[in-house]
Amino acid sequence: MGYAEVAVNAPVAQRRTFSYSIPPSISLGVGQAVWVPFGPRTLQGIVCRLSEHPEVAETRDVISVIDPRPLLTPTQIEIARWIAEYYLSPLFDALALMLPPGFERKLLAFYELSPGFSSSPPPNLTPEQSHIVGLLEREGRTAQSVLEKALGKRKARRALDELLARELVIRSQELERVKVRAKMVPHLRLAVEAEVARTEAERLAPRAPKQAALLRLLADRNGPVPSQETGTTPAAVKALRDKGLISTSDVQVWRDPLLDREFVFSPPVNLTAAQETALKEIRASLSQSGKGAPAAFLLHGVTGSGKTEVYMRALAEAVALGRRGIVLVPEISLTPQTIGRFASRFQGKVAVLHSRMSPGEQFDEWQRIREGAFDVVIGPRSALFAPQPDLGLIIIDEEHEWTYKQEEQSPRYHAREVALKLGELSGAVVVLGSATPDLETYHRAQTGRYRLLELPRRITARGEIPLPEVELVDMREELKAGNRSIFSRSLNRAIGETMADHEQAILFLNRRGTSTFVQCRNCGYAMRCPRCDLALTYHAGEETLSCHQCGYRKAIPEKCPVCWSRRIRYLGLGTEKLEDEVRRTFPLARTLRWDRDVTKGKGSHERILEAFLAHEADILIGTQMIAKGLDLPLVTLVGIISADTMLHFPDIRAGERTFQLLSQVAGRAGRGALPGQVVVQTYTPDHYAIAAGSQHDYASFYRQEIELRRQHGHPPFGRLVSLVHTHANAEVCRKGAEKMFQRLVERKGQEKLEVELVGPAPMFFARIRGRYRWQIVLRGPDPVRLLADFPIPQGWVVNVDPMTLL
Ligand code: ADP
Ligand code: ZN
Ligand code: ZN
């Protein structure tokens, strides 16, 4: 008899598999999805290995196969095992990354009366049993959850077991239905012929112009129109509906990021010498991939140096060799231009994965990818797990972006590390691209783990050009000179000139809202989030205070809640206030704001970008959303309002983050036919991250930052693991952390491991959503080993290679 090692979808299973015997009626392969018994339940599982001998003496049978074809390849299973070991995550969580969308479903139990039931009415039923029998007689086949609701969970289960034992009822199982969250949007349509509507419109025009306009619009467009698009009023809709001329209905909508856009084929351009050299190396690796050491490249190219063109050529080479690619971008909605360029070059051969597709649509796309319908799959970090066959090339654009690390839920993986592993196992070439590589990436390129390819010059219509001039303004000097405005004299002048020349400007500020700090002038009390203890941000537009950590909102108090004083002051600067200041100082300039507060709706990112590209606004005001590789040819000025905002967080990557943001935002200027300039305002012009960022000097930044990392044993010189304990009670939280720390100290002593234990300590964000947070940090060459066989108790989160320790 054969046995299967199965990863079971149960939290207690953690990183191990369980042995099941395979009944003769079933034939099983690795990667197949099965139903298995687990305690009293039936759960989903994935076959990870087949063997002659079980790991335990007593095994139970696999119940049945869920899908006749294997859902995962042996490579994918190996990747999942690696993720589970490296990131200390449950094995099933890792496998789930690769399963078809909507796969994870529960098996629901149903009950009905036995066929022979009515002929022999059962004697001596308990009251609960008769209750159930009565229900089943009336309703027929009924879900267990319904019966449990009627009788209470315990009573229902006991009675059902008894009825089953007496064979009075039969039980069957059925998969839970896929929860499709359809997006419904109200639409308007004509209830009469178009001709009738036009005649009515004529008649209505003098008295009711709005109704007439709506009728004409609907007559011109045949079919339903989203009511928002009509720009009409509820009153007009009601009036026409009452007259029976139009009807309203909810229509399910779905926006494919590619379907509603047209892509003109963009032919390959003549490569520059630097691009040619880079491509040649990648080409050589592609043609011999699978043989010998796997190849990984770092394509370090300044902003606008033509990295995307290199990606597309490399992909074309891979396709010519009969292979396929995966391209990761930081966020789909923020990178429409990159996606558009791939879609134009590889027409009809691009699959875009995004979370706004319904589960059904995601599933269809997953199937088509598995069948090999696409040359390339583009998506966020999760696209790495698409079932792309014959994988030959993996590209990670803007590889320094933090969104490549999944931090919120298990498995807390980094797409870059997984891509390297996947490259190794599948023989695919990996290309990491960035103007500001992650420090660890660059260190690996320096030490030979990656091959370094460089594009040192920017390309524009004017040929290769230097990067824009950056002026660093010391805001302390502005104060001394009596300038208390948020604009330095330089920036003020530069904005004025840009507007006079009818060019565009970007102003960057990494904080939303109006004021970031609201305080009583009388007693000094500062308004804080009751759940997170963080200062609340004032949003003038909505007249509310809001917590940017948890979303808590409250109305602005008229009086100080402590001393009842009415003297409340608003400090700090956010993008909303910046926009007000711009309008006040440059009344003729048309502004557009791009931050999380204005991009809640669907397609809002694309709309803002399109409006700005079409020069419907002169000044774009934004947070780091505008730093993600946009190509805005009319922008000749970039102003960074405060370069210091990131710097003062006690975070291990504060310097790196500051440098990256400065360089990336500055890189938006001067990408078209016109030269660009950048003004950076700061109170700390001598800080190495700011000085190097303003010089576009990656090498100098790297030299200084890597030295600091070496001194502190921080990555890449030591690895970190963060253990976070959260609890609603402060004392319990602290005690739990101290106990855990003791256990870790003991374990370290037993195993004699080279690992440093830091903490336990309350975190910088000491409370979030009402839960206190204490942390222990493990630091060393291989800190994960200390936790390898260490059961992690409830209430703890383990994060291997965390991006931040705040
Ligand atoms: P990056 O991805 O490095 O930011 P892009 O690929 O966006 O740079 O290139 C910047 C601009 O230069 C784009 O408009 C692109 O079409 C153009 N470009 C890229 N390579 C060439 C080339 N070899 N010749 C002419 N223009 C090019
Ligand atoms: Zn007060
Ligand atoms: Zn909060």
What does this structure look like?
The chain has 806 residues and is α/β, with parallel strands linked by helices. It has 24 helices and 36 strands. Strands 15-16-14-17-18-13-19 form a 7-stranded parallel beta sheet, sandwiched between helices. Strands 5-2-1-4-3-6 form a 6-stranded mixed beta sheet. Strands 22-32-31-23-30-29 form a 6-stranded parallel beta sheet, sandwiched between helices. Strand 17 (391-396), helix 14 (415-426) and strand 18 (429-434) form a beta-alpha-beta unit. Helix 21 (688-694) runs antiparallel to helix 22. The longest helix has 22 residues, at 730-751. The two termini are 53 Å apart. The model has no long low-confidence stretch (mean pLDDT 86). The site of adenosine-5'-diphosphate (ADP) has 16 residues, from helix 11.
Helix content: 25-40%
Count the E strands: 36
Rg over C-alpha atoms, rounded to the nearest angstrom? 31 Å
Largest sheet at a glance?
7 strands, parallel
The dominant shape is globular
Ligand types: adenosine-5'-diphosphate, zinc ion
Strand order of the largest sheet: 15-16-14-17-18-13-19
Would you summarize the structure shown here?
The protein is an alpha/beta fold. The chain is built from 24 helices and 36 strands. One zinc ion binds next to loops.
